[in-house]
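Q: Got a minute? One more chain.
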Amino acid sequence: MVSPALNPVDYKVTVVKYELTPQNYAQYTIKIVCPRDISFLIRDRYSSLREFQQMVKRHIGNSDGMPSFPKKRLFGNTDAAFLQLRSQQLSLFLQVFLAHPLVNTSPLV
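A: Always. Here it is, folded:
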């Protein structure tokens, strides 16, 4: 949970890379930089990030002003150009989603 004394915009979220696993799905490495330059990395796949977003939305019950999750793609979803674009989309989505006032005060975040 974000402390009320901190501004959620002070957090920077970026997908720094992606990797294809031996099971042929993309795993994204996400860097979160907090105030005072504290940072950490999370590795996760698209489907888990989508599940997290849906869980948070169900918990807060109000999705006004929330960004849309990047669209799912059934074919060509391991193409390098697509994965680069998806990384950019996820970075933007996570930055805006986590800055939403109802999201950044949720105990799930």
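A: The chain has one domain: 8-104.
Q: Perfect, thanks.
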